[in-house]
Amino acid sequence: MNRFLLAVFLSSVFFSVSCNKSSDILSFSPQVFITNPSEGDTISDTILIQVSITHQSEIIKVDFYLDDNLFGTDETEPFEMKWNTADATNGDHTLYCRATDQRGIETVSESIGVTIKNTSPLSIEQIDLMNGDGYRLAGTLFYNEDAEIGIVMAHSGVPGQSQLGLHPLASQLADSGFTVLTFDLRGYGLTGGFPSYGRVHIDVWAAINYLRDLGYIRIGTFGVGLGAIGIAMTGQHENVVGLVLISCPISVSPPTLLITEEYMAPLTYPKLVIAAENDFANGRPFAQYATTIYNYCQEPRQLVLFSGSFHSMELFESEHEIELNQMLISFFEDLR
């Protein structure tokens, strides 16, 4: 009987010690709360994430998470972090942190919801530029203060066309980190005078020089239709690092402007030539032109022939619109 009582006594002591030890672990586990920002805050620019921790002397690190992704760690008191919110996308996000003490015990804070709202570095300005023939060209500058590459965009010569048709793509490119210049060729849009097809490269050259004078030493160029031949025939400008031609004629007049292998072959930077397979606008074989221009070029080069008979800006209103836009943005992003 005495042995039985002794066993019961020892069991109760062991149970009591175990419970007390578990209670001690629970009572001394770190607790962490995010105190700045607060739930529901709208934040921008660089902020200081601050936390409140119990038993702070035992903490060895605090990890910070955005939408379940670790983005920072602080291993010194007071366990806070400067965070540039521009590194994340605008919109709703979730923040939380994880504190670890010297015993390796981790505690996760409650999540808080915040909204990131940063202003774009983009500004849009109406500008004038003078070409080599003395014409004032009306332009629009989509300026991105973070851009390292500028892009010149030249519109087609289809009646009624102007730089306005290029503005949606120009805006997308500016949002993607480029400064973009669109402009009205002579005789189109807000630019005075009469069209001079064989002098279109003079207009494009002026646009490239405008971006160069703003400090852009690396410039991509893009043209559609009439604008495309202007882009092709300014390809040897020293600041051009890539070009895109869509529905590009092989020649225009008056006066005669002709794309030749002698002019295109020396271009060592990336070239993208695009047309529709059955584009015979005005009886001219634009897919054949695209293939010829592509063959004139050395690598790196790419030829894309879309299905259909879409000409010029019609491609941007076709079933190929999304693919085409993504292709163009990727092309210029690869120039970085």
Summarize the structure.
This protein is α/β, with parallel strands linked by helices and 336 residues long.
Structure description:
With 336 residues, the protein is of the alpha/beta class. The protein has two domains: 26-116, Immunoglobulin-like (Sandwich), CATH 2.60.40; 122-333, Rossmann fold (3-Layer(aba) Sandwich), CATH 3.40.50. It is 25% helix and 32% strand. Strands 10-11-13-12-14-15-18-19 form an eight-stranded mixed β-sheet, sandwiched between helices. Strand 4 (59-66) and strand 5 form a beta hairpin. Helix 3 packs across helix 4. It is elongated.
Could you name the key traits of this structure?
336 residues, six-stranded mixed beta sheet, alpha/beta, 2 domains, Immunoglobulin-like, eight-stranded mixed beta sheet, Rossmann fold, elongated
